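Hi there, hope your week has been kind to you so far. Thanks so much in advance, here it is:
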Amino acid sequence: MTEDEFDAFYASAFPRLTGQLYALTGDHSEAQDVVQEAFVRAWDRRQSFLADEAPEAWIRTVAMRLAVSRWRRARRWLELVRRDPAPEHTPGPDPERTALVAALRQLPEAQRTAVVLHHLCDLSVEQVASETGAPVGTVKARLARGRAALARHLSVGDADEQGEKEDGRVR
């Protein structure tokens, strides 16, 4: 099946298949999603698609299986949620973490990426270099500059807090 033939098939069959899957799922957007996913899978095998002689039936079957799989996953998730209810109160991030995130936001992206990958994700300098596509020396420089900038940003925040504590008023 050529791309043009597949496009024509898609244009004529998509609305019909979506209506059929809507009747099955009861959710129009879910029906569109599973039919679209089925067409994506058909696209990968479009060269041999007409050999099946029932391409619309194939799409419908795949879409129905996808809908059933999603329904089963959703049901399992609900069972898990009901079994282990969420805690009534989830504490927010502590002040140090909030200050760190605020300071990280002030770094240039390359430095921030290097610092996060190395210090928070526990990657070696070589792994950071591989993941970012930068030379090892560049990663080391970004880490050094990023740590220095973080120290400045975090010490300014500490100095502000210390000043508030010393004179007893909030600025």
About this structure: Helices lie at 3-25, 28-44, 55-83, 95-105, 109-120, 125-132, 136-167. Residues 136-167 form the longest helix (32 residues).
